[in-house]
Structures are given as structure tokens and as C-alpha cells.
Design brief:
The protein has 142 residues and is of the alpha/beta class. It has one domain (2-141): Nucleotidyltransferase, domain 5, CATH 3.30.420. The protein contains 3 helices and 5 strands. The protein has helices at residues 68-78, 91-99, 111-141, and strands at residues 2-8, 24-31, 37-44, 83-86, 103-106. A 5-stranded mixed β-sheet has the order 3-2-1-4-5. The longest helix is centred in the C-terminal third of the chain and has 31 residues, at 111-141. It is globular and about 40 Å long.
Amino acid sequence: MSFKVALSSSNGKETDLHFGNTEIFYILSVDEQSGAWELSEQRPVPQGAGHGGSVPEGNSGGCLGHSDERLDAVIRLLCDCSYVLTARIGRKPHMFLKRAGITALEAPADIDEAISKLAVYHKRYSSINQERHNGELLAKLG
């Protein structure tokens, strides 16, 4: 079994972009057991998704923005991904992704290092969720 990861990257080799500056997400498929990964596709953020390719007025940080419209478009784009790996992410987009069931992690690193760490995190997180689910199920049945 595998899970999908969206990589916020300028080159597909490292997580080097701020979430709000990502114009193309690299989508990786990661095997749960081995941690092996492969690049499956690239997904461009739709043009006109709340940023228009320029920095919003009053935004001196260079980020393309976190308008609700842009965040909704990005979430639709990444809805089949379990994780987003990015160099930086703000509180608002982090919460939008969380509500959509996507875990955003800041991992400014080379892709091999980031995926290696994510695979360990995923195994721990998955087992904790499974234990919690089983406990809730047993409580309901008991």
C-alpha cells in the first residue's frame, strides 16, 4: 500500500519553497512498508487561484498569498494526498489543510531525507490512529 505526498519544491529534488509560493506541486507515491518513493506527477496550481502570479498588495514577504480562494483551489488540487512537505507554511494554510485531512509538515531538506523522516512519522502516526480506532470500536461494542 502507498500514500501520496505533495512536495513544495522549485525543482522536485528538495523542499525549498514556502507553501504560499508553490506554483507546481510534485506528487510522490510512497510505499508504506519500505519507504521507497517515486515521482508520479506534477500538478500546477490553477491560474487565477487567488494570486494571479503576483505578490498581493501589502505582502512584503514575497509569498503569493493565502487567500481563501487560493487555499480552496490548492486543497482541491491535493485532496488525494495525505501529506504536504514544504519549507515553510503559515498558520492559516496549515489549518485549512488539516481540516481537509491533509497533514502539512515543514521539512526544508533534500527529498530523500524528507521522505525518510516522513516514512518513520507515517508508521508511528498510522499505528497510533489504528490503536485509537480499535479502542473506540471496542468501547462502542463493549
